[in-house]
Design a protein that fits this description.
6 helices; globular; 210 residues; Rossmann fold; 4-stranded antiparallel sheet; 6-stranded mixed sheet; alpha/beta
């Protein structure tokens, strides 16, 4: 087995529960679920459809508004933003538009795909990277959508110590198949042609394209 992100062959079985096995790359520290445990595309979408990720959910909106607050701290010169993995309702896209930003929603599961040949100042990947099946390929798509000096904002929970991993709430969601340390966030940045520049609130990582 090789690492799905850095393609290193130094991969070891890390943990196992009643549903899945988890493997960890010794080089980039990505923890990932092998493909044989992935949900079908239909079951994955059904799972997302159960989420109350709507503008009427005040808790969800407050959670996303933290991203909106951070955008001007990243850069004052933002003309175009890509909401990568926006979901059907694309609530973050609408919040950003409501704050005066040009924002495009992208989510292939919900047929939101119209961003090709465009270039963005910020790409936001909010609670998305842990779901990506073809991690290297999708990071390449993101890299192609960025201009020099632009930013990627990744929001995801970092993995806890090994003794707490199997009790971690994040692995209970079967659509979560990638789990990151700070080192694996930096490896994702390397594939994007970016360096990690800032961290907010322990789960928001800002990377700048070189």
């Amino acid at each position: 087995m090789i690492c799905k992100m850095c393609e290193c062959d130094q991969v070891q079985k890390y943990a196992e529960d009643i549903n899945r096995e988890y493997y960890r790359c010794d080089r980039c520290e990505l923890i990932f679920v092998p493909e044989r445990y992935h949900l079908s595309r239909n079951d994955e979408k059904l799972r997302y459809d159960l989420h109350d990720n709507s503008a009427g959910n005040s808790g969800y909106v407050n959670y996303l508004n933290r991203i909106v607050e951070i955008v001007p701290e990243i850069s004052r010169d933002v003309n175009a933003i890509l909401d990568f993995g926006s979901g059907w309702n694309a609530v973050l896209t609408e919040l950003l538009k409501g704050n005066g930003y040009q924002c495009v929603a992208y989510d292939p599961l919900y047929d939101k795909k119209d961003f090709q040949s465009k270039s963005f100042d910020i790409v936001i990947i909010c609670e998305v990277i842990e779901h990506l099946r073809s991690l290297r390929q999708e990071l390449s798509i993101i890299a192609d959508a960025m201009s020099n000096g632009s930013f990627v904002l990744i929001r995801t929970q970092l993995s806890p110590p090994k003794e707490l991993f199997q009790k971690w709430w994040y692995i209970q969601d079967k659509t979560h198949i990638n789990f990151f340390s700070l080192k694996s966030i930096e490896q994702a940045g390397y594939l994007l042609g970016c360096v990690l520049e800032k961290t907010f609130d322990k789960d928001i990582f800002v990377l700048r394209k070189l």
